[in-house]
Amino acid sequence: MGARFRHRTVPLAVTLVGCLAIFHVPVLQTSRTAPEVIYHGGVVLTMQATQPRAEAIAIRNGRITAVGTDEQVLPLADRVTRLVDLGGRTVLPGFIDSHAHWIGDGEMVGLTPELAIEAALRRGWTSISEQFVNVQRLDRLRELDTSGSLRLRVNAYLPLNFEDDKFSWFLDHEPRHVYSPHLRLAGVKLFVDHDWGTRFHWSQVELDNYVLTAHRNGWQVTAHAISAEAHDQYLTAVSRALAAHPAPDARHRAEHVIQLRDDQLARMRELGMIASIQPALPGDAPAEAGFPELVARGEIGWITRWRDLVDSGVRTIGSTDMPWIVLVLGDHATDLPHGSPLEAVFQAVTRPSYLGRTPEDWQLRQRLTVDQALRLFTADAAFGTFEEDVKGTLAPGKYADLVILSANPTAVAVDSLRDIEALVTVVGGKVEHCADPATGLC
């Protein structure tokens, strides 16, 4: 059996009698239906409102089969089930990076695609949304997938433009096409503005036509929108597309959402749109050329309104934009905890920069709670890609995507959030990262 895996044989008499008399669960458990592995003795934060906490989780064929107390879940084991004692450690749904370029732009920080995948898994990410997947990058993702090297789940977003160059090749593909459980076409991506809202790439008529075409063909549209002017353009295009082709659950997304007026926030809510944010922003951005001018064109209260978005009811999802935001770190960009979900939670809750810039009062007013921040990278992030039925929470029937952490992020001091380590990252029931096999968790 091996102490490393902590197998435990469950005698047949215990399975039949104990289940009935003590645990009050179904008696008949066979090797065909029993879990392959049960994690037990831990703090399981399911991110579900109906059952927010549990102690154990059972997995079979890459899916979760049971979540509950040890007394409820352990009797489901048979004599070949691997039992893993969590020793009080915390389990969460695998984290979802909703806007990133881990694989596509990883070379900017010295990461090949394979190393980028390993780096993401090491941090506890089980799903990432690659937000610029052109023809060449899609071919590369498919190669990685076919070879078995795509060890996490990737949602690919196909570009509609880059700066002033416009593309329509996305129409050759099927919206939300699933190549495999690890690769999926999630939507399309457009850039409305660049350089802190100093360069714009669309006339309103042209933007309206592209957004309507994508929308009518069933694509989720995401848009890089920094300035209030960019949001005016994009929200107008989305509004006109929905009026021409009503769809009550289109879930079109605004990416970054740096500068947003009150009326625009209300409009996003009315249109059922999603705000895709990076808690590390504005971070060190105030020192960049163009950012002070962006702020000066409006009001300071319009900038990075994370708390306002969440409190308003606009569905908000979180990400790292890895590796772009960490480029300020130079040679240290790939050091832990940079690019990790727990660092992103820390930034959402405290609002400091990577380089230690003290947050200003207007930033502090937009802080989130730890619970709110965790949702950005789990349950709400899954909603952001129409995948809440298979990921984002820990519940029977969903993918067995989970992370075992060294500490409970809801129970530690805020300053300790960045110190929490992803001990184990599990994708589809398979351990894809193990920090220390000696713990017996892997």
What does it look like?
This protein is an alpha/beta fold and 442 residues long. Helix content is 27%, strand content 23%. The chain has 13 helices and 23 strands. Strands 8, 9, 10, 13, 14, 17, 18, 19 and 20 form a 9-stranded mixed sheet that branches. Strands 3-2-7-21-22-23 form a 6-stranded mixed sheet, with helices on one face. A 4-stranded mixed sheet has the order 5-4-1-6. Helix 5 crosses helix 6. The chain is globular, with a radius of gyration of 22 Å. The model is unreliable at 1-31 (pLDDT under 50).
Major sheet size, sense and barrel closure: 9 strands, mixed
- β-strand amount: 15-25%
Supply the helix-strand structural class.
alpha/beta
User: Low-confidence parts lasting 5 or more residues at pLDDT below 50?
Assistant: 1-31
Give me the Rg, rounded. 22 Å
User: Residue share in helices?
Assistant: 25-40%
What's the β-strand tally?
A: 23
- First and last CA, distance: 14 Å
Number of helices: 13
**Overall spatial form:** globular
Average pLDDT taken over every residue:
92
